[in-house]
């Protein structure tokens, strides 16, 4: 769905929710229901995903290829939005916030996949990055070889635990295999991103970072590092939850998202003005 197609929200407040890689906007269906009485949740398909109205701008580098089409539609809403993102969608949300923070009223991120920051001088971080890069390289190679199911097996098992792929139905495996090429493109955008940790200082936005304590180490470490560099951020470590909690455990995640947005609404000054052309 294109955000520009929406008329003014009944509540006067929009929540733009961005899904994870190999997922779709339906992962936010329950959030839309949970917040219906107070906020208009706009869950859009990310560029190039099935049913998306957006195309990636490959003339742009890194995450801009995915973030810019959505950013343009957020501008057309004519008011700042509450931005929510999970994993790859979280990396898109973070890129939007870095590009035009004046468009964002609050930021809620569940383990944003901004993994390029882990390819630094820290040996532990680089090892974590290398492990994930191997998963991405295998995915790309198997997809090019006409074996997307083998590529997605490694991807699914990495994020959900060994054996997760085998526990899926054959239909679910086939559906995921169809997304292999797109997931490989997602990884390419993530790995070619260039913003530095010091850039996060420009995000003076109420930010909540959610982290599952059962998630892979790279997801946890990336989220914690990002939260530590955003002045107005708080972090919630969530026991017994993994990287895909927004999809599989929305009953645990959605109340936290809602609570954060409500709290921001209570503290924002009523004379807050949106400057559409602000830097």
Structure description:
With 279 residues, the protein is of the alpha/beta class. It has 2 domains: 3-118 and 197-267, Rossmann fold; 123-190, no CATH class. Helix content is 44%, strand content 13%. The chain contains 10 helices and 6 strands; from the N terminus they run E-H-E-H-E-H-E-H-H-H-H-E-H-E-H-H. It has helices at residues 29-34, 64-77, 88-99, 123-144, 148-160, 170-178, 180-191, 217-228, 245-248, 250-267, and strands at 14-18, 40-44, 81-86, 104-110, 207-212, 233-238. Strands 2-1-3-4-5-6 form a 6-stranded parallel β-sheet, sandwiched between helices. Helix 2 packs across helix 3, helix 4 (123-144) runs antiparallel to helix 5 (148-160) and helix 5 crosses helix 6. The radius of gyration is 18 Å and the shape is globular. It starts with 13 loop residues before the first strand and ends in a 12-residue tail after the last helix. The model is unreliable at 4-9 and 269-279 (pLDDT under 50).
């Amino acid at each position: 769905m294109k955000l520009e197609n929406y008329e003014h929200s009944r509540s006067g407040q929009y929540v733009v929710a961005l899904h994870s890689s190999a997922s779709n906007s339906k992962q936010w269906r329950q959030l839309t229901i949970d917040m219906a009485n107070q906020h208009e949740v706009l869950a859009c398909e990310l560029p190039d995903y099935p049913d998306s109205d957006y195309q990636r701008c490959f003339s742009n580098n890194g995450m801009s290829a995915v973030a810019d089409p959505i950013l343009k539609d957020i501008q057309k809403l004519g008011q700042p939005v509450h931005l929510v993102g999970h994993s790859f969608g979280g990396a898109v949300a973070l890129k939007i916030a870095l590009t035009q923070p004046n468009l964002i009223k609050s930021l809620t991120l569940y383990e944003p996949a901004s993994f390029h920051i882990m390819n630094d001088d820290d040996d532990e971080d680089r090892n974590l990055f290398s492990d994930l890069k191997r998963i991405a390289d295998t995915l790309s190679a198997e997809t090019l070889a006409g074996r997307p199911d083998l590529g997605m097996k490694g991807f699914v098992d990495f994020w959900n635990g060994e054996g997760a792929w085998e526990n899926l139905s054959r239909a679910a495996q086939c559906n995921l295999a169809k997304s292999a090429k797109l997931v490989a493109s997602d990884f390419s955008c993530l790995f070619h991103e260039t913003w530095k940790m010091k850039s996060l200082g420009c995000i003076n936005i109420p930010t909540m970072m959610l982290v599952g304590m059962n998630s892979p180490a790279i997801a946890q470490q990336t989220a914690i590092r990002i939260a530590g560099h955003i002045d107005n951020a708080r972090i919630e470590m969530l026991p017994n939850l993994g990287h895909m909690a927004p999809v599989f455990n929305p009953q645990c995640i959605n109340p936290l998202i809602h609570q954060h947005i409500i709290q921001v609404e209570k503290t924002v000054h009523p004379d807050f003005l949106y400057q559409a052309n602000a830097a």
